[in-house]
Design brief:
The protein has 334 residues and is mostly helical. 68% of the residues lie in helices and 0% in strands. The chain is globular. The two termini are 15 Å apart.
Length: 334
Amino acid sequence: SLRMLIRHPTSRRHAVRALGALVTNPATEFVIHPLSLLQEVQDRQASDVLMRLLIDGPGQLRVGAAWAVAGKLARNHFDADEISRLESTGLAMLRGNRNPMQRIEAFGIHAAMPTEAHERLALAGLDQDDRLALELCRRHGELARPDDARGVSERLAGRVQESTSSHTSVDADLMLCRLIREALFHVHHERRHQAALLLAASPYRASLADQLLMLAVRSEEAAAVLALTALYQVADAGQRPTLMQLAVAEERPQVRVAALLALGQVVGELAPAEADQLRAAMPDEGQLTQATVHVLGMGGAAARLENGSPTDELAVAARWWRRKSAIIEQNARS
């Protein structure tokens, strides 16, 4: 519905203004999906905002900006000067950067670049691993080697189908396998998101969520982040205890951030003990702090943030959540 509003000439200005008010509020923690709407706007101002967020934005704002930028590249919204700026920005996002979330989004941008820009990037001083990863994304449109992506998705699909009750014997569900592969490995965030939404609406949801969580626990960092990102849409109350454990005890910071954001999407009010556990594990600043604030706000426990002064950032966030209210109703998604 919002995409229709933001594309319509009469409502576009109002929709963009409402979007801007949300994403620029300093207390807003998780705005990946709203920012993706800017891919629909062929407007220099929208492009400038996204470019600034891509360079200087906090972690989650940067992820949302990268999603929108890749979408705008696919729609040919950028001129030659803007493409040149994106080349240098995309290069900075990859060179020497070990943050898996940012690298995944950088690959999505590079895969949507015009051929000439991609060829220049391949010669721009990246190390061999990054050059090979870029070429893999460009050639196959996936974040893993085709054999690896096929093997993982087929194994997951088989386990999910086996553990999902059925009244009749059925053949392997090829659409299930295809959607799992796209949700985990497609280079474009848009396709991963849409595949996860379809899976969340399917009879396989509960079994798939368990398998994705197991994959996240047992995999190396980048694969774990991708599995937890798919869980943003698929996870439910059954995965809540393990997500909580990852959210407070996982040693890999980016996996912990992804687990916190997935936990925030599992609707339902946090118990006082859960809120206290999250608050005690929260560092003083950074992405882990932002992600924890998001979970506390979504779970109706923003009051746990009000111990500081009235101008303290956490107190500001708590007041914002009180005004917006948490999403704790059953069968609701953020």
